Amino acid sequence: MLKAKILFVGPCESGKTVLANFLTESSDITEYNPTQGVRILEFENPHVTGNNKGTGCEFELWDCGGDPKFESCWPALMKDSHGVVIIFNADIPSHLKEIEMWYSCFVQQQLLQDTQCLLIAHHKPGSGSDRGSLSLPSPLNKLKLVHSNLEEDPEEIQLEFIKYLKSIVNSVSESRDREEMSIIT
After folding, report:
1. pTM value?
2. 8 A C-beta contact, residue 107 and residue 84
């Protein structure tokens, strides 16, 4: 069984925990309570299997607190991660600036590929969900960007997340295959 570790990171109050709970089919949270440090959710997704062998995959979703006071913990959170999902509230202009820092710390410094990263512009209930084109600075404009609105179109974010999980599983599977081949040869 393959195992994959995915980090949910981004600014405070961007909706990381709500999305994490929704996408892993965990409990609903009705009031805002900032994540202290990290919450780890373990789950399997029946729509995602490892390569063509049909082996399953266990996921660890690390819902990381967005408060900069936890920055000293980030290296420990990043260790052995296979993917990073950067979540931001598209209705808060400062979040667009902040996600550059999250990308730099969690993707570039960890030498992850852009395909291992997903950007989610989360629209909170009642925000109007303006899906107009966001002008993202380089290198963020090269990343896959998905809009999420759990009120209006919850299926879309689920489908996009499954596609992302499949790409992570393929990456983990290929890496493991390469490792096995290097041992054999």
Report:
1. 0.89
2. yes
